[in-house]
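Handout, section 4.2: multi-component inputs.
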Amino acid sequence: MGRWKPNAPGRLATAALELYSERGFEQTTVAEIAKRAGLTERTFFRHYADKREVLFAGAPAMRELFVQAVSDAPRSAAPVDLLVAGFDAVSEMFADRREAARQRQSVITANAHLQERELIKLAKLSAALAEALRRRGVAEPTATLTAEAGVVVFKVGFARWIAPGEEREMAQLLRETLGELKALWPRAASERM
Amino acid sequence: MGRWKPNAPGRLATAALELYSERGFEQTTVAEIAKRAGLTERTFFRHYADKREVLFAGAPAMRELFVQAVSDAPRSAAPVDLLVAGFDAVSEMFADRREAARQRQSVITANAHLQERELIKLAKLSAALAEALRRRGVAEPTATLTAEAGVVVFKVGFARWIAPGEEREMAQLLRETLGELKALWPRAASERM
DNA sequence: CTACGTGATGACAGTCGATGACGTCAGGTG
DNA sequence: CACCTGACGTCATCGACTGTCATCACGTAG
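Output:
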C-alpha cells in the first residue's frame, strides 16, 4: 500500500460535490472540502486551479470527444450534419450519467459563479468546434456560426434531457432541438427575402 | 461645493479601465483603483459588487433597451423580425462608441475572468429576451431558441463591428450575420428532410 | 543492503478580494 | 438649533489562492 490513499483528485471532487450540494457553494470552504477528502487545503489547489474548477474537470474530455466526432464524419456531410455527428458521440458518453448530471446541474444552477464557469466551458467548446470545422474546410463565417448554433442546441437540448421526468435519449432531444432552431425561419419567410 | 468630488462611480470606472488596460486585470489591485479615483477600497465595493463588475455597469441599460424594442415591435412581426428590431435599437445606442467598445473589449479579451462575466451578461440578455418573447405570445421552445439565436448573432456581429478597420454600421453587420445564420440550412438540405 | 532521486503531500507564511461594524461630516429639515 | 441622512473613511476579519520548504514511502542504481 502506498503512502497515501489513492485517487486524491477523485476524492476531492466527490467531497466538493457533496458539500456544495449540502450547504451551497459559497458556504463551503476549500479547507472543509480538503478535510472531508482527508487532505489539506494546499493539496486541493494542487489538483484544481480554483474552487469552481473541481466541478468541471470532465469538460475537456467531452470537448475532445465532440471535436473528434466532427473531424471524423464522412466527407459528404454538410456543416449542420457535422453537429449531429458530435451530438451522437456526446450523447453516448452521457448515456448512463443522467442522474449525476442532474445533481451536478442543480448545484451549478444555484450559484452565479458556477454558472459563469459553465458558460466559459461552453464558449471553449464553441471555439474548438469552429476550429474543427475550419480544419474540414468550412469557411467563415459559416464555421463560427455553425459552432455557435451547435452549442445553443446542445445547451437547450441538455437542459431538456435533465428535466425532471424526462426519459427520452439525449441524441433524440438534440435532433429535435436542432430541427426547432431551423424552424425559426419558416418556408414562407425564407421565400420573402 | 459638496463634501466629496462628484461622480464617484464614474471615476472608479475610468480608473479601473485605465489600470486594467495599462498593466492587466490581475496585476491591478482594488486599492490601486480606489486610490487613483481618490477614494478607498471600501468605497469601491459600495459601488461595484466586485472587481469585474466595474466594466459591466452599462449592461443592464443595453438589455432593457433591447427588450423594450422587442416588446414595442408591431404585432405583425415574426419572432426573427423582433430580433431585428432589437438589433436596430442597440446599434443606435452604440453608434458613436465604437472606439470605447474596442478598448473595453481588448481588456476583456485579455483575461479569462472578465470573459466569464461577459458571458453572464449575455446569458442574462438571452433570458430577458426569451421572457419578452413569451410575453408577446411566442411559445416555447421557439422563444428560448429565438433568444439564444439572437444573442449568438449579436455576439458574432458585435465582434465584426469592433474588428480593426471595420467601418460599416452595427445594424447592417447584425442583419448580415442573421442572414448567414439562416443560410446554415440551405434550401436543398431543407427539402431533403 | 544502502544511498539517492522522485513525486505527492503537509506545514506555514503571506497577498488580496470581499464584507461587516462603526465612526465622521456636509447638507437638508423642522 | 437639534436632528437625520447619505456618502465616505477606518478597522477588523474571513476565505481564496500562492510561494516555499520540509517530509517520507517508493523505486532504482550501485
